[in-house]
Design brief:
Blueprint lengths: L8 H5 L3 H11 L22 E2 L6 E2 H7 L10
Antiparallel strand pairs: 1-2
Bound molecules: zinc ion (ZN).
Zinc ion (ZN) binds next to strand 2 and helix 3.
Length: about 80
């Protein structure tokens, strides 16, 4: 029962509620107040290259994808 994200197991364990409770007890990530993990991209969930300026809350890759759609213009 090894997966990349702990939430992926929910689909398998939906039919087994008791095992799901035990899974959540021991495998849920620790709730954090500060650090890298609390800032996540709203679009893809990435924690790296995070842009908080102007209230964007996106990673740099998603910002490049949608910058022209939300009104940013490249001058160079
Ligand atoms: Zn992103």
């Amino acid at each position: 029962m090894t997966v990349s994200s702990f939430k992926k197991m929910f689909t398998q364990l939906k039919a087994k509620p008791v095992i799901l409770q035990r899974y959540l007890k021991f495998n849920k990530p620790k709730a954090r107040k500060f650090g890298k993990g609390i800032k996540q991209c709203l679009r893809c969930g990435n924690t790296r290259g995070f842009i908080e300026k102007y209230g964007l809350n996106l990673c740099r890759k998603c910002f490049r994808d949608i910058a022209t759609n939300i009104g940013f213009k490249k001058y160079s």
